[in-house]
Structures are given as structure tokens and as C-alpha cells.
Amino acid sequence: MRYRRLGRTGLRVSELAAGTMAFGGEADEATSRALFNRCRDAGINFFDCANMYGRGRAETILGRLVADCRDQVIIATKAYFAMGDGPNDRGSNRYHLTNAVDASLRRLGTDRIDVFFLHRYDDDTDLEDTLRTLDDLVRAGKILYPAVSNFSAWQAEKALGIAQCRGFAPVTCTQPMYNLVKRTAEVEILPQAAASGLGVFPYSPLGGGLLTGKYGSSRRPAKGRLVDYERYKIRYGNPSVYEVAEAFCGIADEMGVHPVSLAIAWVGNHPAVTAPLIGARNLEQLEPALAAVDIDMTPQLRARISALGPQPPSPTDRNDEAFDLDDFGKKRRNK
Predict the structure, then answer these.
(1) Catalytic residue status for 145
(2) Is the dihedral of CA 8, 269, 260, 34 positive or negative?
(3) Which of 97, 108, 150, 120 is CA-nearest to residue 277?
(4) Of 196, 135, 199, the residue nearest 173 (C-alpha)
(5) Which of 53, 80, 178, 242 is the catalytic position?
(6) What is the pLDDT of residues 45-103, one digit of tens each?
(7) 303-325: per-residue pLDDT in tens?
(8) pTM (2 decimals)?
(9) Which of 10, 134, 168, 293 is the most exposed place for a label (fewest CB within 10 A)?
């Protein structure tokens, strides 16, 4: 396992980050412990959670698991989504964030949250007030590094600008969706993160299971997220993604590697990415994810895989600079 710098913080994190969404849900506590221990054995030191995972159960389990190694691991968690039925049980306002951080600290059994993500952009709360709240939480020692999840590039850059102007603790990293068939992050989020020195922890590198080898043009498993959950059916509803998945698995078969390993390696190879988030319900699922670090993702291999689907659009409509044209718009002659 190699270690990379988290943006400009000086913190070093493993090249794979462990997601804990299954803890206390699809993975019971004993299985969660086995997954955690295997990740630690592999050298992973970054564990990503959220207060909404199992309505706090994932944080509670993670807190027990890190009790004897707290200073050797980096804990990330998040808040925004509803944690109750009350009118103020969600959002990025000062009231909810303050309560959410205190509740997460209790469940995690720790004195600080190392990386704290706003789980999504709050359309109803002034961003400056949210960032002032995070700065107060940093000054209180309850969180170390503010971060954002599911923010667009302009939202993240706006947060950075406000923090700089007001002297607030800056956003340090971002967490977008990114995989072979969901590449919108390449248009602006990843370039913005690289230019602004943000760490990047992409989630869903397997496309909700699409790139695991279970799906193809005419192949579907009996159960799975893309089969059982409406959200994933909508997210990956275009039939073309199954053609991409089938072609991708063909490359993995040709190489003699698990498609899970190859999919995660492709995400992790992007120069702006710090560490893809990997998750599993059991040890059998976890092993090929960990094996992603053993794949040599050469520029040629990355280009071959990337060519399987449509390329993301340019961030502007002006694309003539991609061609070798003279000042009058004519093709230059080869010398």
C-alpha cells in the first residue's frame, strides 16, 4: 500500500480508502470487524463513514473498531441528511451541524473527527454561515479538516473563496461520484480539485456493482443494487452502460484480473484522485478491491478502457484549441 498527500494538509493517506456504509447493515458487527481488520492488514488508514449510515449504527461500530488504534487511523464522517423526523433534523445550518457533530463524536467514542464532510450542498442555508460553523468546530477541536461531498466544482470553489476571505478553516478535500460510466467529474470537479489543491476521494468506483462482472448487455444477477433499488435503476438506466460493462469485463478477462480490481485501479489512476473509496459486505467482496493496488495502469491501458464509453464533454463550447489550427482556423501543414 502506498500513501499519498491529502491535498495541501500534509496528511498522508492510503491509496485506497475504506467505506463503511455496510457496517451495521449488510455487514453485521462481526463481519464489520473482519472487514476492518483486513483493511488495516492491507495498510489502509482512512475510514469513511456518515451519520446517516444505519442511522448511526455504522459510526457506533466503527468507533468500537478503532478504539485500540485511534491514533493510527483517519476517521471521516458526514452530515446533512435527515437523522430524525423533526424540521431541523437535517441540513447544513449551524443548529443541525453542531448537534450532528456532537452526536457523531459520541457514537465514534472519540474526541475529534479527522475529516468532516458536508454530505451535500445545502440550497436553503447561506454557505458562509455553514463555513463559519465548521470553522468554529475546528477551533473547538471537534473536527480537524472540513470537506465537501457531492459538491459541484463551482460550489467547492465558492467555499474556498469564502473561507479565504473570512479567514475560516479551508475545505481540504472533496468526494464526487466517479467511475467508468459516470465521468462528469472529469469535466470540472477533478480539474478544479487539482488546481485548488483539494484531496479527492471518489465514491462508487464500481458503478453500484455494474463493473463487477455480474452485468452485461443481456446479463443481470437475481439480486443487486441495480436490480433492487430504484435509485440505482435510474442512475444506471441507460442500456449503453451495460454494453460498456461487458466490454470492460472482456478486457479484465484478457488481462486475467478481476474486473473489480481493474475498475478501482482505473479510478485511482486519475492524477487528481487521492484514493477511491472501496466498500464490501464480506471478505470475499473485499479481496479483489484490495488487489487494485497491484494493477499497473499504464497510459495505454487507461486510454483503452476510457475509450469504451463516451468521452465527457468539454467544460466550454470552444474546442478548436484541441486541433492544430493556425490563426485563421485552417489546418496547419505538417513540416
Answers:
(1) no
(2) negative
(3) 150
(4) 199
(5) 53
(6) 999 999 999 999 999 999 999 999 999 999 999 999 999 999 999 999 999 999 999 99
(7) 999 999 888 988 887 666 666 65
(8) 0.93
(9) 10
